[in-house]
């Protein structure tokens, strides 16, 4: 299991094997995976909560490593959920960027953190 | 911007361009990206919250599409955060699987949803 | 600090004293408090994530205690945020119930977990 | 249902009536309530995510109202979960403050946002 992972398909395959070896499919309903992903995302937020910005210089090596593994957890649950719901993550991400490009045209959204519903006003 | 994205590097490059065109780097501190990721993860959980399991058959086509885009949002913020913190997501995911394999050996964890701290007892 | 707390005002006062003694107001911006509240809410969700329903019978005494303290954390951050934003929590909760009563009339919403935007269809 | 709510017990009673009238107890397992609470906490975080601090002066009247109702949602789910798990929220909150007072003694924690595990070093 130690060969280098090159892409999301290989990561999915490795996660499938990991889960199958432990007979964990029974717990991995989409609802439970979505809960777990949400919990991991909050654990990723936790080390940032009292920091000013969390820029890399503000993080100790220990905290950076912890954050890196929380990001890994988020990705792993996301890939398992995508596998279960038959979602192509890269295609979805690409489509979402196109949709956001329409909601936030560069000339009106430049330099603004307003939501698109506010921008239109 | 409509060419097919083949891998996480290309997704990162596309996100960099999207953000730069809107001059949004100023808002994208790691702390803010981690908050946004956490909010998107909760939006992904939201359609599942009253469902039994959220298996694909339980989802309307409309809900499946909404979930797919929420997954895209999570991935996009995760890739932007990784870019900002200099994290190789696939390498981190792979390492985390190795660590979990040690914490949850197949023979003791099989069929159990206990946390590793409980398994050891 | 050990006298029994009788209501939300007394809880707020106790939290104010706790924070002032530690000079923590500087970290307690509304944004940071909202992040912390969100992190605690996820920690509250965590022990439920692989359970069927999390009914009280399904929880060990240890888990029940852990959940109870996570609920306390959520309430404490909520009260501190309300104090900072000048929100009367009970009045807001009451108003929200009235609003939900309009969005979800008993006769149409009975026995349904559909969102009000779906109910109207 | 429009009489003023004076305390958490009255809020609990009002929520019980609201849920019973809609026959929603079936959806309100502790697990589902914890998910819903977590989703609402993220919705509360959402308007703050790109702000500097979210101090009351930085919020439009509209945003303040939206935040106020998200806080109401968090409280309402918290009270329903406490009812289901037989938790006295004020007693738990009080105990948690005592525990935190031990983990974060005023003289060592003053002016520091370090976690207690870090403070001890």
Automatic annotation (TrEMBL), chains A, B, C, D:
- Which InterPro entries does the record match to this protein? dCTP_Pyrophosphatase, DCTPP
* A Pfam family annotated for this UniProt entry: MazG-like
Q: Which domain of life is it from?
A: Bacteria
Species assigned in the record: Undibacterium flavidum
Matching entries from CDD domains are given as: NTP-PPase_RS21-C6_like
Species classification: Bacteria, Pseudomonadati, Pseudomonadota, Betaproteobacteria, Burkholderiales
Report the Gene3D superfamilies cross-referenced here.
Answer: MazG-like (1.10.287.1080)
The name on file for this protein is Nucleotide pyrophosphohydrolase
């Amino acid at each position: 299991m130690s060969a280098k992972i090159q892409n999301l398909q290989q990561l999915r395959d490795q996660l499938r094997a990991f889960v199958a070896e432990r007979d964990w499919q029974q717990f991995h309903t989409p609802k439970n995976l979505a809960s777990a992903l949400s919990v991991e995302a909050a654990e990723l937020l936790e080390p940032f909560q009292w920091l000013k910005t969390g820029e890399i210089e503000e993080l100790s090596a220990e905290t950076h490593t912890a954050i890196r593994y929380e990001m890994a957890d988020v990705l792993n649950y996301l890939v398992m959920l995508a596998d279960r719901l038959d979602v192509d993550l890269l295609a979805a991400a690409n489509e979402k960027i196109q949709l956001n490009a329409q909601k936030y045209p560069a000339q009106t959204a430049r330099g603004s953190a307003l939501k698109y519903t506010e921008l239109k006003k």
